[in-house]
Structure formats: structure tokens, C-alpha cells
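1st attempt posting a full record on here, be nice pls
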Amino acid sequence: MNIHNVHVNRAPLAGPVTHIDYKPGGYIPAFNKDSDVNERNHVVINTAAGTLELTQIAGVLTRRIVSYISEGTVVLRGERIGMIRFGSRVDVTVPEGYVFTVGLNDKVKAAETIIARKKDKVQQQ
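the predicted structure (as C-alpha cells):
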């Protein structure tokens, strides 16, 4: 995401938040491979399809990750779970049985773009 994008993050699937691990850190550009030292917030959601993980990663201009959830919160698919101020990145690990429907550098729209589908639904289309 760049400075012109919306930086609100939404839950890809519904379920209880089982773990949140916040780590303070630096502010290297989020697209850089060395950004593993950046401020980050790792969220684990137990979904009906399996465990979903997402990591909010701060970028070079970012100075704050804002989380709207805590451990034990039950989120709905598409619900706002947090935001990252200005340039940033979010990594999503989907449960087994899903395939991504977006590719590298694809533009996505909040609450509109479906980033992954169950394999059986992809084959039916």
C-alpha cells in the first residue's frame, strides 16, 4: 500500500481472534525484504476453514499500527480490524484449501475485492 491507499485492514474470514503479537520496530519501506525488522502486528483468527494469519507491517512513513481488536474478539468477514497509518503492508496466510484470486501488484478495494476462494468454488466457476 502506498500513501494514497486506504489503510484500513479487514478480516478476510469470520472467527475468534486467538492470538495477537505486537512487536515494535523500525520503519524500512514495507516492500523491502529487510522490513522484517519493522513494527508489526501478527493476528491469528480461528475460522471455520482453519487458521488464518495476517501481519500488519509498518512502512517508512508509518509511525503507528492501530488495532481495533483484541484476543477473544469474534470478527465477521469484512469487519474492520485495524489500520496502518500511511505507507504499509499486510501479509495474509489463508487456510489450506483456499487459492488466491489476486496476484502480485494487483490493486484491491477494501470490502470489495475477494483475495482468495475455496478451491472447490474456483473449480466450479
